[in-house]
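Field reference: sequence -> structure
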Amino acid sequence: MQELEALDRDKLIQKMTQALPEIRENFNLSCEDLERATNIGAKRITAFEEGRQMPKWSEYLSIVFVLWTNESSRGILDEKGLFPVELKRAFSVNRNAHEPTV
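Structure field:
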């Protein structure tokens, strides 16, 4: 858990808010789609993207976990460093895990 404590949460959150519009566009996700998947209000998501509000750590994690469930968006999370290995280890997440059930 020391690895998790060493993460710069503020930096990860900032990177997410900067990357989120591009991520949503690449995967044709509206703010409403992301709201349904994360239970974070669409207006709040827009505020993140516009820099008017910063996500809480729990909101950041919600977005990351939702994006991680899609094979294509996993690559962009890795490319942008939004789901670092330390965080994956802390949550025991790996690419070989079974597909989530809905």
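Note: The mean pLDDT is 86.
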